[in-house]
Amino acid sequence: MNLKTLPKSFPLSLLIIAATSGICQAQTDPLPSWNDGETKAAIIEFVEAVSTEDSPDFVPIPERVATFDNDGTLWSEQPAYFQLFYAMDQIRDMADQHPEWQNTEPFKSVLNNDMTGVMASGEEGLIKIVMASHSNISAEDFQDSVRGWLESATHPTTGLPYEQMVYQPMLELLSYLRANDFKTFIVSGGGIDFMRVFTEQVYGIPPEQVIGSTGDAKFEMIDGVPVILKEGEIAFVDDKAGKPVGIYRHIGRRPIFAAGNSDGDLQMLQYTTIPRDAEDTTPRMGIIVRHTDADREWAYDRDSKIGHLDQALDMADGQGWIVIDMAGDWSQIYPSDSE
Amino acid sequence: MNLKTLPKSFPLSLLIIAATSGICQAQTDPLPSWNDGETKAAIIEFVEAVSTEDSPDFVPIPERVATFDNDGTLWSEQPAYFQLFYAMDQIRDMADQHPEWQNTEPFKSVLNNDMTGVMASGEEGLIKIVMASHSNISAEDFQDSVRGWLESATHPTTGLPYEQMVYQPMLELLSYLRANDFKTFIVSGGGIDFMRVFTEQVYGIPPEQVIGSTGDAKFEMIDGVPVILKEGEIAFVDDKAGKPVGIYRHIGRRPIFAAGNSDGDLQMLQYTTIPRDAEDTTPRMGIIVRHTDADREWAYDRDSKIGHLDQALDMADGQGWIVIDMAGDWSQIYPSDSE
Q: B209 vs chain A: nearest CA distance in angstroms?
């Protein structure tokens, strides 16, 4: 509104209304940290189509299920998964009771702050670290431990608390979907108990909507008190072909929206978006967050061990999956960034 | 309101208002199929206490988690679990492809309609029947099969469709809890995939809030179509000490309300109601449905193999669990019963 073009007699009350609606309109952009363009337009078009009652693409509310990977999709995952940093800190705290770790990999590398050595221990080594830090502990004690760590630990390169390294545009997307009666779930290779400590507060996703890799647990009455004990063996790996299985077990119906960032999300994207037969005309959307922003976050895909994105990227075009260009599509990365 | 005591000049409009409010009051009894008495009063008192904002026992909405056993708690389970009747019907349909079943127990007894022989095969036999009927089938085909069966099969003694053998008072309790912002879950030893076919329509409980015994499953792309295949091995038994573990895995927080009917629910009741320590003052309620009504349903407890209720009954008083006397507390059993 250009004030100079208004007649001098223009009533102040109308001016206020006009100004206020201007503000309102600006505030009702559901995805303010997304730059205008094809990606943002496609997301909004999809959400409006499935949630508008007289739309041919209308989807009943109970079927509006959206699943999100966590590491690299909702928060950062470099230079290593944040849960690994937690596990390594635990190993250091527990080292006194395990003198044998001084000479046993991967623990030796952890205690020597040798990240190259830790990563060289491979997937098996990483699982050993995580399991050693997460086992023979009650569920409540484990949660308290993670909560305490999140409150004090900071990321090795950004110096930020880990909970602040979530993506502002994805927080907006979660809220936007929920405002349109989607139920939002996390489906991550990360540990289910680790994530549940912060997902409600940080993402607005309650523990019962978090699916992740799961350790064995047992129930016992100890001194008259009911206790869940984490035993330290992996019961379920929620990655790759495990993701659709985890969705099936926990949710019991196919999502119509899924977001991931790596080949670990490939099967979830297939399960979510590929129609079962010609009669299956439900609209479906798959999204891949591509890390293209070395300045504000990290840039990696085909050559990275963490967040390896190769096959899913090749398939994206053919499957109609939207590839988010972090550098171009997002005006802001973390909530603390200035725009 | 006694019409005879009204002055003749009493305005008709006020009379209508008075009569209408009378009707409204009657309609707002949240548990009309529960006879007035201690049980009903205790339930209403608990729900009001945890959901009234200025009550000392107020519980924030996200923590209002209520878990319900299914067989014998939400619907009948005699003379055998209804899922077993489904499985036996499937075995009969599949018998042509399995000539060896004619001479192999427990299949032989199933094919001869010998219920005594079926039950004599014990838990191992029952699991064999269920697994044989539920395996090497896609999740969707299995659901279609259960749906078709529920639409046509009837109970051997009542002649009712199985979905009509749900307890009207428990349907009212589920609705009442949800009206007070509880999230209601099923936690049953029954098969998770079997239950999910009907829980949303019959109980208003969506599939993601159903926890049950779980078979192995895998994800595959078959001819370009994403498929979940049920493999036929049991991955998790959601009974006894398995119930708190199932709750922990699926929900990730302790319920404040649990309802069961057998010793299979004992650990869920302990996990739900016993405080963790002196600081844990959250109000908690445990309920046991006791089958005391041989006329309208069945009467069984300590001597029954199905719905065996012995240890939990002995502990109920000491733990403050409410034991529902089906004959005395419920004015109606099934929705189709006349009151």
A: 8
When CB atoms are compared, the residue of B208, B221, B267 closest to A250 is B208
Average pLDDT over residues A146-153: 97
**Multiple choice CATH, A32-79+163-215+234-339, 3.30.70.1710, 3.40.50.1000, 1.20.1250.20, 3.40.50.2300:** 3.40.50.1000
Provide the whole-model pTM: 0.91
Least confident of A297-301, B63-67, B122-126, B295-299: B122-126
Sign of the alpha-carbon dihedral angle for A93, A94, A96, A102: negative
Residues A252, B196: C-beta atoms closer than 8 Å: yes
pLDDT the model gives residue A21? 44
Chain B nearest CA to A5, separation (Å): 52
Q: Is A98 on the interface with B (CB under 8 A)?
A: no
The architecture CATH gives domain B33-51+59-329: 3-Layer(aba) Sandwich (3.40)
Beta-carbon separation of B252 and A219 below 8 A:
no
- Does the pLDDT value for residue B26 go beyond 80? no
C-alpha B328/C-alpha B338 separation (Å) is 16
C-alpha dist (Å) from residue B26 to A3, A99, B20, B31, B124: 61, 71, 10, 11, 50
Alpha carbon of A330: minimum distance to chain B alpha carbons (Å)? 32
> What's the pLDDT at A13?
46
Partner residue opposite B245 with nearest CB, options A218, A245, A270: A218
Token pair 């209403």 is at which residue?
A: B44
pLDDT at A80 over 70: yes
